[in-house]
Amino acid sequence: MANLNITLHLLVCLAGAHGAAAQATPKAKPEADRRAIVQVLTTQTAAWNRGDIPGFMQGYWQSDSLVFIGRKGPTYGWQPTLANYQKNYPDAATMGQLDFGGLRVSLLAPGAAQVVGRWHLARPAALGDLQGYFLLVMRQINGKWVVVADHTNSSQ
Length: 156
Fold this sequence. Notes:
Number of strands: 6
Radius of gyration: 15 Å
Oligomer: single chain
Helix content: 25-40%
Shape: globular
Strand content: 35-45%
CATH architecture: Roll
Strand order of the largest sheet: 2-1-6-5-4-3
CATH class: Alpha Beta
Number of helices: 5
Mean pLDDT: 87
């Protein structure tokens, strides 16, 4: 657990170093921040479920410093992450219907949070459902909460 906390701290510091110039220090407002973070995920789910991967990606930091860690290892940058999603989910059937559950939002510092949760894709029987867990590091950049680091795994 100590290693996870150190890793998250380093990710938050790295993300802050890249985004600090464009970001004013937000004032602490825990409940409003939690609601805003959950709203980002709700908006992403709606975009995914209508087959809109670019819309889904609006919840991510549009930066070369974004990191997505999946089963094939890390991907750096917003554009390569978008390309991976488009390659792996080329049509609505493959995308399925997404839902998130078991969300646990923890505010780490003003303008920084982590979210742990479960994801599930309901897909046609021929493709089979997918599911797993994720850990997101989110930052408030230019007044908007965005995912700056995403570690997602699949239990398949």
